[in-house]
Design a protein that fits this description.
Elements: E1 4-5, H1 15-20, H2 31-48, E2 53-58, H3 61-72, E3 76-81, H4 84-94, E4 99-104, E5 126-130, E6 132-133, E7 138-139, H5 142-152, E8 157-161, H6 173-176, E9 180-184, E10 195-200, H7 202-210, H8 220-227, H9 238-254, H10 256-277, E11 292-296, H11 302-311, E12 314-315, E13 317-318, E14 327-331, H12 338-356
Parallel strand pairs: 1-12, 3-4, 3-5, 5-8, 8-9
Antiparallel strand pairs: 2-10, 6-7, 9-10, 11-14, 13-14
């Protein structure tokens, strides 16, 4: 049975986007491919307001989080975490042989500049964190963290996992100038899983050029060489790129400011429902995600609640990590609208009545 997804990811992919991918296959060493690649690159830069290079590969975002660790850290980094995916970014680095100092704050809280005071020492090559923690619904202030990192060590690279914030929250990339930012197709781009992206600074590329043992698939220097020709290093998911081109055209037509505002409006609807009907949102006030509503469920029987929602053709997400048993999550991102969220919340009202009986 197909359902409309209000999940944290993969997210709902509209019918028009699916149809946009239904085009005859082209090979990736042709003029047609170069035009597709170049057009996507142009629109990515425009939508995200950045002049830094953007690389695309087939795979989940994790492949480029690993690539960032291998290209940007020779030995020693500082990892910031407030949840399961912050822990993941640290594991990605340590599993590649990097020494990672860790700053960890309680789940539901945001890492703040004061938490890293005095910790970005001269031997710290990079500081990495998740901008929007999917397990807790915390949206950290990446600008403030980046400024603090550079005030302590101007040479330290700023490396950000923006998987569930990019294209939904204005990260002000031109102002912040992070050194690497990773995201994928299956969240705010409202596409199927299968492509990963990284935005890289000139400083990062200088570091990558000197790095040894980067592997092949995510060697950023190799990716750059091909990207400069509007080619991919390895076989790209061309059908998915057709959908990406279509989505970026839609996005620019909507306008990024309008898109960011729409996500905030959807988040506000979910927050108000949670405060009225249950125990409110899980993350601390002032640091709440525009894309993921993590709701404290109290004594709610989530399985019964969710079963009713599914019976109405919709699906949400259970809690995750340490908060799995005390929360559930609603993804309000991608091409969803305030009308979609209102429809879901109406069904959730019915579900609450059903499980109380």
């Amino acid at each position: 049975m197909s359902r409309k997804l209000y999940t944290v990811g993969p997210v709902n992919v509209p019918e028009d986007v699916l149809k946009a991918m239904d085009r005859p296959m082209i090979t990736h060493r042709t003029k047609e491919y170069k035009e597709l690649h170049g057009h996507i690159e142009e629109m990515l830069h425009k939508a995200l307001d950045t002049d830094n290079e953007i690389f695309m590969v087939a795979g989940s975002a994790t492949v480029l989080l690993e690539g960032a660790a291998r290209n940007g850290i020779a030995k020693h980094s500082l990892g910031l975490t407030s949840g399961s995916f912050g822990e993941r970014s640290i594991e990605v680095a340590t599993s590649n042989g990097k020494q990672v100092d860790v700053v960890k704050v309680p789940m539901g809280k945001a890492v703040k500049p004061a938490d890293i005071e005095g910790k970005v020492t001269k031997d710290i090559e990079a500081v990495h964190w998740v901008s929007n923690e999917s397990s807790s619904g915390v949206l950290c202030d990446s600008m403030a963290l980046a400024n603090e990192v550079r005030s302590q060590n101007p040479d330290a690279l700023v490396m950000i996992d923006a998987v569930t914030s990019m294209f939904a929250t204005d990260l002000k990339l031109r102002q912040m100038q992070p050194d690497s930012v990773v995201f994928g197709t299956q969240k705010d781009l409202a596409l199927p899983p299968g492509m990963a992206f990284v935005i890289v600074s000139p400083e990062f590329m200088k570091k990558s050029a000197k790095m040894e043992n980067k592997g092949f698939y995510a060697d950023f220097v190799k990716l750059q060489e091909k990207n400069n020709e509007n080619y991919a290093l390895t076989t790209p998911p061309v059908s998915l790129m057709f959908g990406l081109e279509y989505q970026l055209e839609k996005m620019l037509k909507e306008g990024m400011a309008t898109r960011y505002r729409r996500h905030k409006e959807m988040a506000e609807l979910v927050k108000n429902w949670a405060e009225k009907n249950l125990d409110g949102l899980y993350p601390e006030e002032g640091y709440r995600s525009d894309t993921i509503g993590v709701i404290k469920r109290g004594d709610l029987d989530f399985d019964a609640f969710h079963a009713f929602i599914k019976s109405k053709g919709m699906e949400i997400s259970n809690g995750y990590g340490e908060a799995k048993k005390s929360t559930f999550r609603i993804g309000h991102m991608g091409d969803l609208t305030t009308d979609d969220i209102k429809q879901l919340l109406s069904v959730m009202d019915e579900a609450l009545e059903e499980v109380k009986q």
